[in-house]
Amino acid sequence: MFAKSVSNGSLGKFQKVLIVALALLVLFAALPVGQASAWYYSQASGVRGNVTLPVISILEKRDPCFPVYGTMVCPSMLHLISYTGPTVYRSAAAAGAQIVQGMYVLEMWNGAAWTVIARSSIMQKQIGAYQNGVQFPTLTLTPQIGRGIFRVTWLFSWFNSGGARIGSAVISSNQASDHICSNPYRLCKSLPGYFQTGGLQTGAW
Question: How far is CA 21 from each of CA 34, 110, 158, rounded to the nearest angstrom?
């Protein structure tokens, strides 16, 4: 919810905020393919604030093994994390407190288009009237699919103390250094704008 200054009777405003966030997700899905090499603002509207983004580590989440009909099964899933969260700075479009919403999205290339396969919840932070910015939670995404070509995009929207949107941004990767492959269980390489992983312990893409 918004801060006290905008919380009274703000159910309609909150619903509008969610609609805006979902609209950003739709916009993100329509981004042009092949724009790729540090993070860059691939879409923006209004007066956005700046965002400092972390490097993404590409890992493997290994759960304890268990027997299934005499065979040991060891669950393993691709796991993306950042060790710090994004820092989001205030928009110059409004004085006083500001609300920022964010969402982290993972897409997979299916041969013809990017398809969303994992995403965070919609997160919300308040930048105080005398604050320059605020830090968002770290990225943690564990998709059901571990082999393929993927990209991460960050979505943010800024609102003034009255709940009106004053800016938004969709931020995409465009450098291989945006990702670090730290996965000993599958092939992995970071490329400008996306990364690729191979099959689990197959040695093949």
Answer: 24, 24, 11
